[in-house]
Structure formats: C-alpha cells, structure tokens
Design brief:
It is a single chain. The protein has 439 residues and is mainly alpha-helical. The chain contains 22 helices and no strands. It has a single domain, classed as Growth Hormone, Chain: A (Up-down Bundle), CATH 1.20.1250.20. α1 packs antiparallel against α9, α4 runs antiparallel to α9 and α17 packs across α19.
Length: 439
Amino acid sequence: MEQVNQKKLFIASCLALLVTGLTFAIRAKIEGVFSTTYLLSKEDIGRAFAPAFFGFAIAMFAGGFIIDIVKTKTIVRLAFGLHVVGIILLLVAKDFTSLFIANVFIGLANGSVEAACNPLVTVLFPKEKTKMLNRFHVWFPGGIVIGGFLAWLMMDTLNLPWQALVSVLFIPLAIYGYFFFNESIPETERVTSGASYKDMMRNVGAPYTIIVAVFLMILSAFIPAFSLNFDSAVPYVLISAIVVLVVVEGRFINKISLLFPLVLFCMLLTSSTELGTSQWINALLSTNGINPMLILVVVTGIMAIGRFFAGGLIHRLNPTGVLLGSAITSTLGLWLLSISSGPAMTVASAAVFAVGVCYFWPTMIGFTSEYVPKSGALGMSILGGAGFVATSMVLPIMGKSIETAGPQITLRNMSVLPIILIIAFIGLSILVKKHHHKG
C-alpha cells in the first residue's frame, strides 16, 4: 500500500458513488416533468430510464473483464468522462429519444464507478471488506437523500427549473475527478494475490451461461420486440434452460460449487426490490398525502445510517443472517406500503421497507468477496451488472402496472420478490454451512 493515499481514494470513491445516487433521485423527480410537460406515458418513461440500469450493467460487465488489463485508473477516468457527457445530454433532453440517450451515458458512467470502486475498496481495506463496502455504499442512498432534499427545495419550494437540479451533479463530479486524476491507484485484489484470470472465470461457476443469460436480459430490456411476456410459456422455458445449463457448466464442466450462481439469482431479486420501488416512488405514493420525494429521503436516509453502522450487525448475524432478515423485513414493508393511505402510516411503512432493503446491495457484494474471493473483480461486476439489468426489465413492467392496476396492487405484486428471497437465503445459509464444514 506504499504511495497510495488510502483515505483520499476512499473519499473519491464515495463521491463518485454520490453522483450515482444523485442521478437516481433526480430521475425519480423529473419522471413527473416528462410525464406532464413532455407528455410521455409511464411505460415510455420506464423504457427511457431503463438504459440507466442496463447501461450500468454493460459497463460493470465490461469493467469486470478488462479492469486488470487497462487498470483501475483507466476505468475511473472513463467514468468521469461518461458522467460529463451524460449530464450535459440530460440537461437538453426533451423527448423519449434524447432522454433515452442521456440515460445510456449516465448508466455507463455509474456502472464504471461500481466496476472500479468495489474492487478498489476491497484492496484498500483487505481485512474489513464487507464493513467498508457497506460504508462505501452509504453514499448511494446518501446521494438519494441529498438529491431528494434538493429536488424538494429547488423545484417544489423555490420553483426552479428541473435543469437547475441536474446541474448540481457537476459539483461532486468535479471533486471526484480531481482526486482520482491526481492519486496513485493500486492494482485489483486478483492481481495482487496472484490468482489467474482463468481461475477467476472458473470461480464464477458457470461464466459462459451467465454471460449469455444476462445478454438476453439486456436484449429484453433494450428492444421492445424481445420483451418477455410472462403470460406465455416462453420466459419459463428460457429460465428452466438457463438453470439446467448453469448446473451442467458449473458442476460437470468446471466441477465447482454453485454458490456464485445462487448469489447471482438472489441479486436479481434484491436489486429489483430496492431500485425498482425507489425509482417509481413518485408515481407509487403520489396520492398518499405526503410529498413522495420526502418519503424517498426518509427511506434512503435510514439506508445510509444502517449501512454506516453495518459492521456490528454483520459481525453478530453474519452476512446470510443479515440477508434473510432483510428479505423478511422488505416483504413486510412492501405489504404495509400497499395498504398505507395517510402520511403517518406511509412514513412508518416506508421506514420498515428501508430497513429491509438497507443491507441488500453491499452485503451481497461483500458476501461474494468473502465466500467466493477468487471470483475477483469479475464476480463483483457480474453481480452488480445483472442486478441493474433485472431492474431495467422491471421498470417498464411496473410503469404499465401502475397505469393499469394502480399503485397499491403494484406494490403488493412486488412483495412476491422478497418472499422468494426468504426461501433462497435459507438455501444459501445451508449451502454456506456445508461449504464451511468442508473447508
């Protein structure tokens, strides 16, 4: 760790993630502008926002594969450049196409931040990976808290145009760019530990099947003609085929544990539960008698505090215990939100939901780094990328559901995801115990 400024690099990483969080809050707010001023349907807005998620996934996947070749510093500089272009394009967006393209660049930038900074944090703090990843990920909800407050202050209170809110992004962007461009950035954990690239691929379990599956998910989110219709048998046949291929590639070809593919499956559901709900917060809670952006601030504020103090909880319960508790609490939170009608109950229900989703993302990444360490930066990138692809698929489905079935039914339907997670995390806990005993 010679000649590496650990503190400054960690602050720079947090600021880069802050920009990512701010973009989420801003999108949640300007959804209403593009609906009322630019007359886009909720489904169209969901599709225009989707690149922020699958662009994120593409950048994370690409970053995971090439970070050891081009080095971490190149990825963070690329993130900075993509953020600059994306924010400028968002400022001039006025229709579906321009909003879509702006979100492509912002998604690629946000994904590059995660692809570079997740492995960077594990290298900077090798003995406190999950704890420091949780502290790093404070700044995603932290950015949403700040962005939600600024949205309320600038647009709802001061009546400033939405472009003024978007322009705020340039402040943390300039600071993190300055820090990263002026500091020496260390190699990834795989490089420093001497693990081979082939070994990293093998430890993903079924890398080729997983990559093809996520590519199909991106096609489904990106091209309407490829959208999956769950009223037909096609999606279920595809999912069954992918499961079989994962087992064949992982157990019979690579002869390795299927722990990573199981974690990946859970990541698809945890990210959709957290990000899908928060991205549609404006439409889901607009009739509950309280400003939805203030609810977003409450939810993400609780998440930020919870992640900052995650170390002690993870130490007491271990990562699988934390994840199982999160799934149970998320289910309760979504159900309560679906029956909430007034400000007090809405805030209380949102708080329960916030506690539920609080530890999902960083603990999933931290779990992988601790229990499947040889999957390296690639494993972390695949997890984060696939999570965002799943969210990009969920957004237009939720948008259509809000317009047809209404917010309450949509929230109730979303609670199915954490119910599935409860079962999955029980299975994950059993698998980890078996894996530990064998070790």
